[in-house]
Amino acid sequence: MKDKVSEVSTKLVQVIQTRDAERVRYLSKMMEKQKDPMNTVKLFWLITQHLQRLDTDLLNWFESIYFEDCTPEVKEMWLQFIDLCGITLAEQYSPIQKA
Hints:
0% strand
């Protein structure tokens, strides 16, 4: 599953790079509907890792779309959770393929 998640995250980053807000909203909602919630965590973490290397403005744009229906508290808790999971995910996905 690791390879599939990496592949999907790379494709999602390509969509995010288009800055097509409607497509990103749609794909964000699809991410959250995963049967395995940890897949959402993995996807989000991988996407943010790619975007941090590529373009932090694009990362901020993506997060503004992803969290547009969330309170600042929910956004902060989610990002903290992702950071905690990132410790383990970094081991699983190291080295992350360069975008």
